[in-house]
Amino acid sequence: MSRFLKRSGLVGVVLCLFLTGCGEELWTMTPEEEELIVAYAAGAVAKNNKYQTQGLIYYEEEPEPEPEDPDEVSGPGEEEPGEAQAPDGEDPGAQNPPEDGTADPGQDGPAASTATLAEAAGLAPVVAEYQGYQLADSYMEGSYFALNAQAGYQFLIMSIMLSNPSQEPVECNNLARGIRCTLFVNGEKQAEAMPTILLNDFATYLNTLEPGASQETILIFEVPIEAAGEIQTLAMEFEADGVVYHVDLQ
After folding, report:
1. 154 assigned to some structural domain
2. What are the angstrom distances between the C-alpha of 213 and each of 108, 164, 168, 194?
């Protein structure tokens, strides 16, 4: 034990002299002193090395596998991995249509069903009726809302009357139904209804209609002046609750 303490003390003195410099030359150790420091360091490392019981392990780089001869991997009549042979007369790149009958994402979906505005609105017992339209270069509602059409366009302001013929109050909550309205003039798509903050905007109308009460609502479309001046037929693609309808208005 005394021999161990003497060696430990000597190691501590040597380390202090070796690691602290005062501008003098580095301490030159004798072979015996170097042996003591190496032994002490090895013991400290071994004490905290959790892999000590495994001994020394030397890792060598594994040689890279030699490339295989393609002729040995697949013979003349075998298929390459990941490739499928198409039957004679068929294009290997052609895609088969889905078996569940759904439309391909790159193709148009099924045509919208034709319905009246009341049927498409789906507000029964409340009735929705198209009341006509007017054209204007601007739209104002009181002193809190104003819109000006951009150059070369006009507003088509569509009127839709909501009525409750029942004997009970009915809540109309179009705001929660995700309504989208697209206007067609003379069979050609022109514009989608403009979002507004108006309380009587049909697409976002939220109110309770009392028995026998009616409320006029509107939809505002911005259409080219050329189309607005040649209106012969009007139609609307009406989407609510994820269902799309085609509605002929006039």
Report:
1. yes
2. 41, 6, 11, 26
Question: Checking DSSP bridges between strand 153-163 and strand 127-136, what pairing results, if any?
Answer: antiparallel
Number of structural domains in the chain: 1
Q: So what's the pLDDT on residue 59? A: 41
Residue corresponding to tokens 């007017």:
134
The single residue listed with the structure tokens 């070796």 is: 18
Distance CA 233, CA 215 (A): 25
| Joined tokens for residue 3 | 């021999």
Q: Which residue has the tokens 């990941």?
A: 82
Residue 231 lies in a domain: yes
Phi, psi dihedrals of residue 70, rounded to the nearest 5°: -55, -35
Q: How far apart are CA 190 and CA 222, in angstroms?
A: 8
| Residue 72 in domain | no
Look up the pTM and report it. 0.56
Strands, sheet with 234-240, edge to edge from the N-terminal-most edge strand: 113-114, 243-248, 234-240, 180-185, 188-192
Name the residue type at position 85. Q
Residue 143 lies in a domain: yes
The residue with greater pLDDT, 84 or 235, is 235
Radius of gyration, CA atoms only, the chain: 43
* Angle of CA points 162, 183, 233, to nearest 5°: 95
Show Cβ contacts of residue 235 under 8 Å, excluding neighbours closer than 6 positions: 183, 184, 187, 246, 247, 248, 249
Q: Which tokens sit at 72? A: 């040995």
Q: If pLDDT is split at 50, 70 and 90, which confidence band does 241 have?
A: confident
